[in-house]
Amino acid sequence: MATSDQLQLNKTLAISTSLLASGAILSLSAYTVPVLNARSTDAGSSTASLHQLRSIFSSGSHVFPQLAILSSGLFGYLATSATSASNARLFTAAAVSVAAILPFTAFVMVPASNGRLIELEAKAKEGGEEAVGKEGGDAEVTELLERFGKLNFVRGVLIGFGGILGAWASID
């Protein structure tokens, strides 16, 4: 049986990790993607926006899944240690909501955004900025950035909702 201090530490880590990750993910949708989108309409900037978005998506894949696993695992542990059925249900829902970013990313975001992002970036490397701009490429870059921003927003809400549920369960 975990001590009260250990449970408090687990609650603090689970909640803060999920809310920190949510804030970082949501800031990409709220601030970074609109800036990249505005820049992509400037002459010669579509390729740069593609490269930057690809870098952001790639770097996030090395941080956010691990934070989600940590937070979800801690919420799961808290669910098994809960003293009431309602808190156990809330911690379980928090664990599921936080962990939901993993399949959402793998089965929704990657197919919807990452594949086309890689193709456009390769096309830009082969033929330069002009290759992306031909045949509606600039519009496609804009659409891709907007799609990524919306899907990323959903991902941020999922992990943030888990953090809120965990915080709610922690209020005795």
UniProtKB/TrEMBL annotation:
TM annotation in the entry: 12-36, 56-78, 90-110, 153-171
GO CC list: membrane
Domain of life: Eukaryota
Cell compartment(s), UniProt: Membrane
UniProt keyword annotation of Membrane present: yes
Membrane disposition: Multi-pass membrane protein
Chief place of localization: membrane
InterPro entries: Anthrone_oxy (IPR013901)
Keywords of this entry: Membrane, Transmembrane, Transmembrane helix
Family: Belongs to the anthrone oxygenase family.
PANTHER family: ANTHRONE OXYGENASE ENCC (PTHR35042), DUF1772-DOMAIN-CONTAINING PROTEIN (PTHR35042:SF1)
Name of the protein this chain belongs to: DUF1772-domain-containing protein
